[in-house]
Fold:
Amino acid sequence: MSNSIKGKIVLITGASSGIGLACAKRFAKAGCKLILLARRKGRIESLADELNSKFRTKTLNVVADVRKRKVIADVFLGLPAEWKDISILINNAGLSRGLDKIQDGKYRDWDEMIDTNLKGVLNVTKSVLPLLMKQSMAHIINIGSTAGHEVYQGGNVYCASKFALKALTKGMRIDLLGSNIKVTSIDPGLVETEFSLVRFRGNKQKASNVYKGLKALNGNDVAEAVYFAASRNSNTVIAEIVLMPRSQASSVHVKRY
Ligand code: NDP
Ligand code: 8X3
Structure:
């Protein structure tokens, strides 16, 4: 059974691109109010304008870096009163850097992945939890990955960050048992977004090779799964959804034509 989430306030981190942007569109279509968080101001402003003209969506734009613990804490302590009733937190902001074997890895890349994909989720969740706890029903949805289920060559630290996130999601569900907060992990395989462009620091050729010879998922496919999890009835918790394109069977089994 589904539940209407119309009118709910949804916070989406990493709303400026890919899966986060697609989630913003999906939840706007469902009549939600959105807090759009990312570092690129222009991107979230133009998304907010688009959603406002298409769906009359009310948005609050937050230009912030999830790695900056104090900045994140201050943002949520200082939220305008009409934006405090956050019901759904989508922890989506994340990235990979490089595909180096562990012996060639760079400290800078390792720090960025762990600080964003793991500590970023902790920073945002810690700041938003007091607000979620005030709702009659609330939901934390973490964007994991098939990279949190299987390790692939060169994936070392990115995979470790997503394995850790998987443990963290489970830990959240256990610790929040008996509370009003549901916890879900949405774990996609290959999704064609700016993810690989970021991983290869703007190298378009390397990025497009990742999706060569196959039809990857797109952001909307993942947003549909996020929306499905968010719109179940109050007694149903979708603990985890693993989704991948038809040409993928695991992180390491990919069929290319
Ligand atoms: P994109 O690169 O298209 O989007 C990443 C988003 O994260 C951007 O909006 C970016 O915004 C934001 N972001 C990155 N770092 C920070 C930061 N420090 N603070 C705030 N926002 C940040 O990639 P995807 O949409 O593909 O990735 C979204 C999530 O999905 C990630 O967690 C990724 O690991 C996961 N994922 C991706 C898959 C894929 O194949 N694409 C598969 C499985 C999971 P900005 O730069 O403006 O700050
Ligand atoms: C992103 C999917 O396989 O490129 O999490 O790591 S993969």
